[in-house]
Amino acid sequence: MNIHIVTDSCAHGQLPANVTVVPNTISLQGKTYREGVDLSAEDALKLFSRQPYAPLIHVPTQEDYLAVYEQLARSADAILSIHVSREILPSWQNAREAAKQMTGRCEIEVVDSRTISAGQSILVRLAARSVARGASFEETIRILRGAVERIYSVYYAETTDFLMQNQIMSPSHSILGMMLNLKPVLTVEEGRLVPMEKVRTRVQAIERIVEFAVEFLSFDDALVVQHRPGSSDQTRMLYDRLSTEFPNQNFPNTLYGASLAALIGTEATGLVILEGEENENDF
To answer: What fold is seen in the domain 3-23+59-148?
Structure first.
């Protein structure tokens, strides 16, 4: 089968060239940008860092997805469409409604990744590898849905303004954190970005991220997520600790994109892990 993969631009990281990315639109001070088209991750992080208010994210519409599906259906036997968690943004819902209109013309499976950014891109790459090795559409869907249950993310945010404006943190917790100089550590839980605890220093934040990592027996994939090219103080500390705990594990890094920056701010550091399948088999 000729299987094509579609995703939205919340999936940030290196994606295969044959994946179709439908961009979000970011609005800021009266201007609009297509994520990944008019606005790169690096430029977005620089631009947003100078703004007091969180940019607005507009996901692709049902009509946008329908146009993409109709074009791909001319050559594709099936389409696998992988999207940011429905609990964070409504891209999955729009894609699902568009897919319904393609019934009888092309087989389309719309999958909620239950995550965002690097976690979503890990799932997209996994699906692309499955297709490349000749797996059937049904087998690729099965592999992908199993992996959705094994994606875990943790982020340390230096600032709370965007978190408060996006109602990820309550105003009272944000103000208390600023008064006490406490910084949030976030995770993705049941598809939602939620604070899991607060720390006072970067060292404590890095230790918490490493503690998160050592809970896993093995990784099928892992990505360090950072807010600028090169290495920040946070990522240098994180790599030092990870190299001690996991001397044989590779941890590539990536910038996070405009959509995640608009949600959690422009000074975050994180780690995303796809848990090894054998971990599940041990129970």
So the answer is: Rossmann fold (3.40.50)
